Amino acid sequence: KMSNEIAKTYEEAAKKLQALVVADNFDNKMPILTNDKWPQCLQPLVNVPALHYVIEFLIMNEVREIIIVTKSNLEMIKDFVKKQGYSQRGLGYKFKIIVRPIESDSASLGDALRQVADMDVIKDDFLLVRGDTITNMNVHAALKMHYFVKQEEDKKVNQLSESRKIKTIMTKLFVKMPPNSPRRDPAFTDLSLLLDEQ
Fold first, then answer.
1. Which range of residues forms the domain containing residue 81?
2. Residue 74 is assigned to a structural domain of this protein
3. Is the dihedral of CA 111, 114, 116, 122 positive or negative?
4. What GO cellular component entries does it have (predicted)?
5. 67-87 pLDDT per residue, tens
6. Maximum C-alpha span of the chain
7. How many domains does the chain have?
8. Is residue 159 part of a domain?
C-alpha cells in the first residue's frame, strides 16, 4: 500500500508516483476499427496492442502504481495485463497495476475522473494518460518542475484564509509540431494554444 505521507523532496515524490490510464475513448474517432467488443486501447499497432505501449512508457518513467479504469471490456483488459506479466518484472522496486471499472454511463473524461476521485485510490500527484497514447517521452524534467511549482504555490496558499485555499495544479505536456507536418490531421483541431515567451 502506498504511503499517504506528503513527500518532502522530489525524490520521495518520484518513488510514490502513480499513473491513471483511462482506457475508454469517449470521443471515438476510429468507429470503423473499434466497438464494444474490441476497445481502442487494445487495437494493435505493429501487432502490439496500444495499451502495451502506454504501460511500457510508464514503466520507463519508473511509475510505481498504474491504475487503469474502463467502463467496458473490463475482463478483456484485465486478462491482457495479467498475460503480459508486467508486475513480475525485476524492476528493483515495488510495482503494480490495478484495473478498476467505472460506470457504463460515463460520457466523458470528466465523468471518469470524478468517479476515480470517489474511489480514493489516487494519493498524490499522478500522470493522467489516455489508453491509446503512443510516446516514449521522459517526463521527469516536467514532473520535477511541477513539484517545485507546487511547493511554491503551497507556500502562497498557506498564507490565505481557509475559504480561499485551493491546492490544485496541473502540468500538461505537448509535442511541438510544424503546421504542415504530415503527423497533423486537419480533422483533429480540438485544441489551440497561445504561448508567451516563457
1. 7-142+166-198
2. yes
3. positive
4. eukaryotic translation initiation factor 2B complex
5. 999 998 899 999 999 999 988
6. 55
7. 1
8. no
- CA 48 to chain CA mean position, Å: 20
**Identity of the amino acid at 88:** Q
Global pTM value: 0.81
Q: Is the pLDDT of residue 196 over 60?
A: yes
Closest by CA position to 124, among listed 1, 6, 9: 6
Is there a domain that residue 154 lies in? no
pLDDT for the residue 37:
62
Report the range out of 49-63, 102-116, 180-194 with the highest average pLDDT.
49-63
The strand pair at 65-70 and 18-22 is best described as: parallel
Encode burial over 131-160: b for 16+ CB neighbours within 10 A, e otherwise.
Answer: bbbeeeeebeeebeebbeebeeeeeeeeee
Which CATH number goes with the domain that contains 70? 3.90.550
| Residues 38 and 32 sit within 8 Å (Cβ to Cβ) | no
